[in-house]
Automatic annotation (TrEMBL):
Record's protein name: Methionine aminopeptidase
Residues that coordinate or bind substrate: 77, 175
Binding site for a divalent metal cation 2: 105, 168, 201, 232
Organism: Paenibacillus wenxiniae
Cofactor comment: Binds 2 divalent metal cations per subunit. Has a high-affinity and a low affinity metal-binding site. The true nature of the physiological cofactor is under debate. The enzyme is active with cobalt, zinc, manganese or divalent iron ions. Most likely, methionine aminopeptidases function as mononuclear Fe(2+)-metalloproteases under physiological conditions, and the catalytically relevant metal-binding site has been assigned to the histidine-containing high-affinity site.
Keyword flag Ribosomal protein: no
Length: 248
């Protein structure tokens, strides 16, 4: 069942979402060669608290960290580590924060120092996929209108769109309905309604869309070892169009 949110509830979600956005604003200045993802995790943990929020992911289904930190071929759900980041790494940081019982969720992709032209293009196209999807997230459209433009744009550059990790509704729970892959056909799928709040979070691989899961049960990697990028926003459907609650 899809849980529609009132304008007042969306405003409360925006508070949680802006805590996440502020973390990302700071990370953009912090991330550089030599820093470790465990140091990034500790900063986010403390910053969420400073802003009056609560971390959400540590303890969620057994996950043990306040962020997901995914480097290079890791698509998502990577564990923060003490391994220093290297010049040219592609880093994805996914953050969820809670405020007054409501959640905000956003992942962002960061170039560590100077990345290769190939990595830079992958990141640019993935970011474009996110915003092309958001443009279609208007009341009356269908989820397929959102996901089809993402798939078309990524595949036009020869990239693979991850199928096995999903966008999702969000509110008081992290994973609400609808759940959806970032592929599909225009005009198909769930009709979008005012009050829907969900993530759009395309994970775009340099090569195949296929993935594997490490023995830890969490870390998702590209099956061919090539790079992956991801950008994610939490958005709300309103009469005036989509609102990006996690806008930086």
């Amino acid at each position: 069942m899809i849980i529609l949110k009132t304008p007042a509830e969306i405003e409360r979600m925006k508070t949680a979402s802006q805590i996440v956005a502020d973390c990302h604003r700071h990370l953009a200045q912090l991330i550089a060669p030599g820093i470790t993802t465990i140091e990034i995790n500790e900063f986010v943990k403390k910053h969420i608290t400073r802003l009056g929020g609560k971390q959400f992911t540590n303890g969620y289904n057994g996950f043990e960290y306040e962020t997901c930190a995914s480097v290079n071929d890791v698509i998502a759900h990577g564990f923060p580590s003490r391994q220093p980041l290297q010049e040219g790494d592609v880093l994805k940081i996914d953050i969820v924060a809670e405020y007054d019982g409501w959640l905000g969720d956003s992942a962002w992709c960061y170039a560590v120092g100077q990345v290769s032209p190939e990595a830079e293009q992958l990141m640019r196209v993935t970011r474009e996929c996110l915003y092309k999807g958001i443009e279609q997230a208007v009341a009356g459209n269908r989820l397929g209108d959102v996901t089809s433009v993402i798939q078309q744009h990524a595949e036009s550059h020869g990239y693979g769109v991850v199928r096995d990790l999903l966008g999702h509704g969000i509110g008081r729970d992290l994973h609400e309905q609808p759940s959806f892959a970032h592929i599909g056909l225009s005009g198909k799928g769930q009709r979008l309604k005012e009050g829907m709040v969900f993530t759009i979070e395309p994970m775009i691989n340099e090569g195949t869309y296929r993935m594997t899961i490490d023995e830890d049960g969490w870390t998702a990697r590209t099956a061919d070892g090539k790079l992956s990028a991801q950008y994610e926003h939490t958005i709300a459907i309103t009469a005036d169009g989509p609102i990006i609650l996690t806008e930086q």
